[in-house]
Amino acid sequence: MVREAVDRVELVLPDGRTIDYAIQVSPKARSLRLKLSARDGMVVVAPPNLDRQKLVALVTAKGDWIGERIAGFDAVRHLIPTEPVARPQTFDLPALAEFWRVEYKPTRSRTVGARIDPPGRIVVAGAVDDVEACHAALRRWLARHATVTLSRWLANLAEPADLRYTDLAIKNQRTRWGSCSTTGRISLNCKLLFLSRDLVRYVIWHELCHLLERNHSERFWMHLRHSEPAADSLHGRMRDAWKAVPSWAQRGAGLVL
């Protein structure tokens, strides 16, 4: 059930909640896309040739799915800045006991890159007046750094326990610290480096134990508590773990559904 407003459309979700969303027509859009933003709320990006009535019907049909995504977004909404974030000058990576200074070097390049020079200092060079481009370059550097360090960490825990995963992917996800696929592929969030070592170890063990038990049954928790005796207390601390992640490390200002 929908009721059009002047600039926005009201949507009643299957659970009875009511939300409203904006429709943004984009010549570049090839299909319907939904975004959640801390500043703009829900935005539906649509191609110019999509009939408005059909658009509303398509959004309404996704009501259950939208409700689930909004619930996940609300859990991390406070972490997404609504105002511009400055370029970081320093930052800590507690997981590795590392402290980094950041130097910004303008060049004629239209792009921005980040490199280590020397150890303990990151040089961000290029069109450094573009703050978001600097953030993106630092996020790419963070992902590279996490690929090297977390892959070693994962192997060091898995091998003695004879737990065999098929592959490792390092991602920059907004709402998940890690996952384990049915094929044994483990994904870890590069933002884990902002957490304490015991929390990172907990997340890695959590995903490794999914190689033994795919769900979160009592058997899964038995395996996890055997591998990490402090699992219960660490699990509780993970609820606030996102607060340790600086705003610049968050990928974008919203959530693409």
From TrEMBL:
Domain YgjP-like metallopeptidase: from-to ranges: 30-237
Alphabetized InterPro entries for the sequence: UTP_pyrophosphatase-like, YgjP-like_metallopeptidase
Signal peptide: none
Protein name: M48 family metallopeptidase
Species this chain originates from: Candidatus Accumulibacter affinis
